Amino acid sequence: MIIQKQYKFYAAHRNEELEDKCRNLHGHRYGITCFFEVERTGSLSTLFGDFDRKIEPFLKSEYDHGMMVNIKDTLYETLMNHVLRTGEKLKLKRFSQPTTVENLAHQLFTEITDMGFRLSCLEVRETDTSVVSYTREDWVTDSRYFANSKTADTESLSE
């Protein structure tokens, strides 16, 4: 059985690899729709509040009104220097790859799975007209890809 829940948060990011308007720092009101795989154990399978108790506070503390930033982006070093120089606290959600909506979907799928939930699909809405539908198969494939990328990065650093 599939239970569907929707959440939202506001966050800033930029796509430093692009040469268009999205290279600039900007923000979105992200909407996520989780499709949870659950099994009936009696008259009900899962209370909706079981999802909300973990996911809503997590999104609020990690993402909402923060900035998603790739730690390899030159802007990250600038932001960290600012923090060290001024002592100002910035809410930064660190990514090890560009903060595209596809990579956000992978990150969120991983984090929600790590909470003990089984997702069949996760939809991430970046704008009213732009949605990524990210499946468990996508997550498995991307997890292998990112694991291989980390191995390649580590090997090139040791050479």
Automatic annotation (TrEMBL):
**Cofactors named for this entry:** Zn(2+)
- EC no.? 4.1.2.50
Under the heading Pfam families, the entry gives: PTPS
Q: Which reaction does it catalyse?
A: 7,8-dihydroneopterin 3'-triphosphate + H2O = 6-carboxy-5,6,7,8-tetrahydropterin + triphosphate + acetaldehyde + 2 H(+)
What InterPro entries has UniProt attached to this entry?
Answer: 6-PTP_synth/QueD (IPR007115), 6-PTP_synth/QueD_sf (IPR038418)
Q: Tell me the keywords, alphabetical order.
A: Lyase, Metal-binding, Zinc
GO molecular-function terms, A-Z: 6-carboxytetrahydropterin synthase activity; metal ion binding
> What superkingdom does the record give?
Bacteria
Q: In which pathway does it act?
A: Purine metabolism; 7-cyano-7-deazaguanine biosynthesis
What's the family?
Belongs to the PTPS family. QueD subfamily.
What protein is this chain from? Answer: 6-carboxy-5,6,7,8-tetrahydropterin synthase
Species source reads Bythopirellula goksoeyrii
